[in-house]
Amino acid sequence: MTDELLARTLHANGTLSREQIQGAIKGRVQGERLGQAIVRQGMLSIADLQRVELGSNGNGHNGNGHTQAPASTPTQAVVEAPEEVEDVSALTLYIVDHDDSADPAQAPVVRYANELLKYAITLGASDVHFEPQPGGLLPRYRVDGALQSGQLLPIELSAPILSRFKVLANVDITEQRMPQDGRFRVKIGSKTIDFRVSSLPSIHGEKIVLRLLNHSSLETDLTKLGFARRDKAIFERMLQRSHGMILVTGPTGSGKTTTLYAALNSARDATKNVMTIEDPVEYELEGITQTSTQTDIGLNFARVLRAALRQDPDVILVGEIRDDISVRAALTGHLLLSTIHTNSAVATISRLRDMGVPSYLLSSSIAGIVAQRLARLTCKSCRGPVAPDDPRRAEWAHFFHMDENAPFQEGKGCAKCKGRGTKGRVAILEIMEVDAEMRRAISADKDAESLRQAARSNGFISMIDDAREKINFGFLSPQEAMNVLMGHEE
Ligand SMILES: [Zn+2]
């Protein structure tokens, strides 16, 4: 937000008087932003300033509103809204390492396929599904986790469009009964985007799904991913350790991979050898050695891991913990990052014990655990208060241990969010750092409840607590947060 816009906003919503704003402007030191001057001069707290900048209606700073953040939450959530997705519809799209000049008859199909790709990029889609239907081919685009339908492609175009994507992916276009996969890369404007292509036979014909891997949009800023300041500090402290294991847990689609890439980015420096073993490599990161398993030639996980450990790693990322091989690897003088499928940070300990990892080994290898879910951010442009008599309030209040009359907010739907009331996504997180006390509790074989208590006495903030804070700030609607956390054992 520019200084001028901030001044206007502060005045318009009555947060500060004209005299106060002018005072802050006069009192600025050289190079200081207006917001910094206002905070420095004690007119507003950083949190209140952020609320204004994020466009909330200022609950809590007018002195008579409810302040719902419980006193036990010593953290400030600072969620930055996602970048606006760039409209690329007017730009030229190039397919890397592919020449179409040999077959001019294909030009209309090529152009049309390119338009579909550009539309997907402009929408900010993560995947595009091409579903064969009796009347034609239906494109569906996944945006912020939910599918939305495009326009049905006429039947005459169905086969040529599907063939086009298979040609680009370098797979056999005559094969329609067996699943296939491949990939291609496009450049458009300043972006480079990889498309992973997979085909699967269905009863109405072949279905193709394109997954977009946008190199320029991989978000590695922990704050933007949803880490509150306190969580970010804990996570970065864990990443500075020279050995041990850091696990990121959550169901499929909870953003674990993005968090791990952000962690790698944070751990990477010129003095360290950072390596990954992935299946497959999704994003290429500079300054990191990335390897993928290739089971078809016998290069399985265990084999790649053994080889990688002989390459003198400081930090090593492995896709998923499935057995105790990786856990033992964490004991040999480097930091190991990985994911695991569990419900919560505490449940991860029990899960690893179930895998046969003994408690003494766990207590000496685990540095910390991050559990997370992805929730849709409330659209800033149409965010507004929920009616005082809304019947959903009681359930929300119960679920999040909040006051039923809390100033809940949600998106109402507008042009910017295409009527959905949400735009972009953010993680709901909990971080358990394994300190001396936790280590003792783990090695003493304590049950989940005792572990949870030990973590709590250590300042552990659960996903429910984190969600409550994001609700208080208006980033998340209580309904969305509840849907996402439902079934999560606290
Ligand atoms: Zn909106």
Name the beta content range: 15-25%
Rg over C-alpha atoms, rounded to the nearest angstrom: 25 Å
Helix content: 25-40%
* Poorly predicted segments: 56-77
Q: State the secondary-structure class.
A: alpha/beta
What's the total number of strands? Answer: 17
Bound molecules: zinc ion
Mean pLDDT: 85
Spatial shape: globular
Can you summarize the main beta sheet? Answer: 8 strands, antiparallel
Number of helices: 18
Distance between the termini: 38 Å
List the helices and strands and how they pair.
Layout: H1 3-12, H2 18-26, H3 34-40, H4 46-53, E1 93-95, H5 107-123, E2 127-133, E3 136-143, E4 146-149, E5 153-154, H6 155-168, E6 180-188, E7 191-202, E8 205-214, H7 222-225, H8 229-239, E9 244-249, H9 256-267, E10 274-278, E11 289-292, H10 301-309, E12 315-320, H11 324-329, E13 335-340, H12 345-354, H13 359-365, E14 366-378, E15 383-385, H14 393-400, E16 409-411, E17 422-433, H15 436-443, H16 448-457, H17 463-472, H18 478-485
Parallel strand pairs: 9-13, 9-14, 10-11, 10-12, 12-13
Antiparallel strand pairs: 1-6, 2-3, 2-8, 3-4, 3-5, 6-7, 7-8, 14-17, 15-16
The structure holds zinc ion (ZN).
Zinc ion binds at residues 379, 381-382, 411, 413-414, 416-417, 421.
What do these coordinates show?
- 34% of the residues lie in helices and 23% in strands.
- With 490 residues, it is an alpha/beta fold.
- Strands 1, 2, 3, 4, 5, 6, 7 and 8 form an eight-stranded antiparallel β-sheet that branches.
- Helix 5 (107-123) crosses helix 6, helix 13 (359-365) runs antiparallel to helix 15 (436-443) and helix 15 (436-443) runs antiparallel to helix 16 (448-457).
- The two termini are 38 Å apart.
- The model is unreliable at 56-77 (pLDDT under 50).
- It binds zinc ion.
- Zinc ion binds next to loops.
